[in-house]
Specification:
The chain is α+β, with helices and mostly antiparallel strands. Helix content is about 20%, strand content about 30%. Strands 1-2-3-4 form a four-stranded antiparallel beta sheet, covered by helices on one side. A hairpin with an 8-residue loop joins strand 1 and strand 2 (about 40-50).
């Protein structure tokens, strides 16, 4: 069975907004080379992505839906950067990476960075970004 996704209509809610579903990425952790730290901090990411639904009759095929694996691969690449300024930078870049995928409508990113001294509290940031609605 072939899938002609270009011809598939997008489902809409009352008011005309596209029908969406949610992808959760919880507890993604990776070591990151943060600026000013000798160690590589184990940084945690939690993401909530609002994604455009592929429409009625979509095939049971990974190409028809947004895969969280694409997002995880983007996060892995981000965490390999060196001299990362901090949690704000990581959250900002993670949001940009998520919104670079055309199906992602909105993303909330929470990033937690442990303190350099294990006796201190962790710090972090949270941000939400949305793709502008198309006119």
């Amino acid at each position: 069975m072939s899938d002609d996704s270009a011809k598939r209509a997008v489902l809409v809610q009352p008011g005309g907004a596209p029908l969406t579903y949610t992808i959760l990425v919880r507890g993604f952790a990776a070591s990151v080379a943060l600026a000013g730290r000798a160690d590589r901090a184990q940084v945690r990411f939690d993401l909530t992505l609002t994604v455009t639904h592929p429409g009625p009759g979509f095939p049971d095929d990974i190409e028809a839906v947004m895969s969280y694996e694409d997002i995880v691969e983007d996060l892995r690449r981000l965490c390999r950067e060196s001299n990362v300024p901090g949690a704000d930078y990581l959250a900002d870049r993670a949001a940009d990476l998520c919104l670079s995928h055309g199906r992602v409508r909105r993303v909330q990113v929470d990033v937690t960075v442990p303190a350099a001294d294990s006796s201190d509290s962790a710090a972090g940031t949270s941000l939400t970004r949305a793709r502008p609605d198309r006119a």
